[in-house]
Hints:
By secondary structure, chain A is an alpha/beta fold. Chain A contains seven helices and seven strands; from the N terminus they run αβαβββαββαβααα.
Amino acid sequence: xxxxxxxxxxxxxxxxxxxxxxxxxxxxxxxxxxxxxxxxxxxxxxxxxxxxxxxxxxxxxxxxxxxxxxxxxxxxxxxxxxxxxxxxxxxxxxxxxxxxxxxxxxxxxxxxxxxxxxxxxxxxxxxxxxxxxxxxxxxxxxxxxxxxxxxxxxxxxxxxxxxxxxxxxxxxxxxxxxxxxxxxxxxxxxxxxxxxxxxxxxxxxxxxxxxxxxxxxxxxxxxxxxxxxxxxxxxxxxxxxxxxxxx
Amino acid sequence: xxxxxxxxxxxxxxxxxxxxxxxxxxxxxxxxxxxxxxxxxxxxxxxxxxxxxxxxxxxxxxxxxxxxxxxxxxxxxxxxxxxxxxxxxxxxxxxxxxxxxxxxxxxxxxxxxxxxxxxxxxxxxxxxxxxxxxxxxxxxxxxxxxxxxxxxxxxxxxxxxxxxxxxxxxxxxxxxxxxxxxxxxxxxxxxxxxxxxxxxxxxxxxxxxxxxxxxxxxxxxxxxxxxxxxxxxxxxxxxxxxxxxxxxxxxxxxxxxxxxxxxxxxxxxxxxxxxxxxxxxxxxxxxxxxxxxxxxxxxxxxxxxxxxxxxxxxxxxxxxxxxxxxxxxxxxxxxxxxxxxxxxxxxxxxxxxxxxxxxxxxxxxxxxxxxxxxxxxxxxxxxxxxxxxxxxxxxxxxxxxxxxxxxxxxxxxxxxxxxxxxxxxxxxxxxxxxxxxxxxxxxxxxxxxxxxxxxxxxxxxxxxxxxxxxxxxxxxxxxxxxxxxxxxxxxxxxxxxxxxxxxxxxxxxxxxxxxxxxxxxxxxxxxxxxxxxxxxxxxxxxxxxxxxxxxxxxxxxxxxxxxxxxxxxxxxxxxxxxxxxxxxxxxxxxxxxxxxxxxxxxxxxxxxxxxxxxxxxxxxxxxxxxxxxxxxxxxxxxxxxxxxx
Lengths: 247, 645
C-alpha cells in the first residue's frame, strides 16, 4: 500500500523526510526516498498484514449488565481473550484493554468502560495512540436485524441505529469504513420496548445459540485477522445466514 | 311420471335404422349393442349367441337374456357392418395447411411456427416455453395466426356503416398545422454531434441502432421515463409473440419502451432481455428491479418496422413430460423419499409473494446450497402453475433437482455433482452438508496453524520501533495464497512449533513476535506516562471493580490523542500527534510540525463531508502542499506511481 511516486524525493519535501523528533515509534511514516511502487492494491489472494488489529466489543460496564443482549460484544471479546490466552488487565482511555496476538498478528482487545453511548470516546483515542489504521479496527456488537445467533462480518457499514456504533463513527471522524462483526439478537417480540429488549438477558435457548455462535465467531475473527476479507469470510457469512435452515 | 311404452318396435330405439326387421338376416352391427336389453331386435343376436353354448357348457343359463359374465361370445362384425357411417374413421380436419410456406414444428423449443419470409421462428412465448420437447399435442396442429391479408384492418368488430367508414386520417409524423389534439411523437435520435442526422431508411439492425449510446445519453433517456405509467407488462407468459407489435407501437411515439415484469418471468431476466433485444432489434439500456427499458435505436423508422402476423387465437397446448419425477436421476426411490421426508421439516429459506420480482432467487438458492443440500421455498398464496413454472426455471438456472411441490412449497436438492462456487482449498473434504460449518471452521483452523509456519521464516527483520510500519504487506502473500494447502504440507516439519492460538489452555511463553513487541512497548510507555494503569489478577475479572477503577483513573489521566481521519501512513504518524483542532488537549501531546497545522486546520474545516471520497482527500492534500509539483490532472498518486515504476 505504499504509494510513493519516486519523483517526490527529499529535495521537495524537507519536512517529511526528517527524522521523527519524538521518542515514540513512528509507524505510519514511509520515507519518500524509498520507492515502493509495487502493485498498489494488495492482491485478492490473502496476505497477512502485521499491522495491529484493534478488536473492540461494545457493551455496558459492570455486573449489572453482564449477560444482557446489548453486551454480546463484551462476551465475544471475553471469549477471544480466553481462547487466545490474552489477559485483559490494563485500563487505558476509559476502557479495559489487553494485548496479545493471533498467530503473528498483534491484536488489542478493548472493552470500553464508558457506557454504550460514549464508546467512541473510549475507542478512538486508543486507535490513535496505537496507530491502528481504520481498516484494522474491528467492532463487535449486537445487531437486531439478524436472527438470534447469526453473525456477519462486513468490511464497512452504517450504524443501524446502534448508539454505540454511532458514537464510534462520530469519534472516528465520521468514518464508517471499518470492519464489523455483527452478532444477531433478533427483533423484539411484538410491541416490546426496544430498550427493554436490549437490556434483557438471553433466554436459555438463545443462550445456547449465542454460545455456539461465539465459537464460530472466534474462527471468523482469526480468519479475518490472518487473511483479511477473503473467500473464507464470504463462506462464513453464507454459512451463518443459512445455519438454521438445515435439518 | 308414467312411462308410455309405444307399441311400434322401432320406437324402442332412440335411433332409427334401415334394417329393423327382426328377421332380417344380418342386422346392422349398430343394433348389436341393443341385444343386451333383450329387445325384439335382439333376437337374431341371441340366436347367434346360442350356437356356441350348445356345445354343452353347463354354466350357461338356458335362457339367454343378457351378456353374462360366463358367456364369452362377441358380436362378430362383418365388413359390411363397418360400412355404416357411424363407424367411419374421423380424420382430423387439417386447418390452413402446414404446407411448404408455413409449417409447424415441434422441437426442443416447443411449438414453433415457421414462415417463409420471417426472420425467426414464431412461438407463443419466447421466454417461458419449457426447454423440453413436448410429448404430445392436445389438439390437432393449426396455425393460430390471423389471415395474411384482410380487405380491411382487423378491428375485431363488424364493418362500419358507410356513413362512418370514411374517417378523417392524418399522418402522426406529419400532422397538418393547426390541428388540435394531436398526440405527440418523439423524434428519432438521440444523435451524437457530428454524426449526421437521422437515417430514415436504415437497412440492417446495427444501422438502426447506430452508435452505442454514451452514458450521458442513457442517463437522459432514462430520466425521462423512469416514472412513466405508460408501460408494457410482462407476466407469467413472458415475452409473447403479440408483444412484438405492442413494443413497436410504443416505439412509434417514444424512444424508450418501459416493460415491467412481475411474477414468473422475473426469475430469469437475463434471458428476457436477450430475447427482447434479439427479436425486436432494440437495446436494453437500463434494468431496475423488474423494469426493463428498451431503446428503439437511433435511426428507427416506424414505417419500416417488420410486420409480423399476430396470433389471434390461442395456440395448441402441448403435453410435456412430468416435471417432478418420482425417482429423479441419480437417486433411488428410497433415497428420494428419504430426502422428501427430511425436506418436510426444513424451515423454508424464503417466502415468495404472489406477483413479486424474483430476480435474486437463483443466487439466493445457490448460496443456500453452499450450506445445506436441501432447500425449501415457501410459495403459499401463489397459483400452482406459477410456482411449478418457477421450479422448472430454477431447475435449469440453479442446477438442482426438483423433489416435490407438496404443501405449496418447492423442495429442491442440489444434486450429487454439486460444486461449491466459493470453493477454495480452505474448505477441504466435507461430504455432508450438515457438518458444513463445523468442517469449515476446523479446516480454517488447520490452515491457520499451517500458515503460521511460513510467516516467521519470510518475515522481514525490522527494528522494534518500526516493526509494523514498513513491512510490505505482500510479504507472505504467496504462502497464504490459494496454494497454501500444498505449501502447508511442506512446512509440516515445523508443526512442532504450533502457535498457541489454537489451544485454549496453553499459557504463554510463546515466542513473542516482533510485531507484538512494538505494541507492548507502546503499552508500557503509556503506563509509565500515566495514561494507562494495570490491574492485578484479582481485579480484572470482576466487571464492577474494573468499572470503578476505570472511572477513577479517567479523572486523573490525560485525555488521549484524537483520531483524525487520515488514512495516509506518512501523515497518520504525524497527525495523531499533532494537537487536534476541534477538541484540543490541554496538556497537548508532542510535536507540531510548523508546516503541518496549515493542513490540519483545513482538515478540521471539512469534517462535515461525511462520506466523501478518500481519493479526493489525498489529491487535495497533496495539491495544497506542493501545488507546483503535483500535476493538476486527474491522476491519483498511486496511478502516477504505477506509471513511473
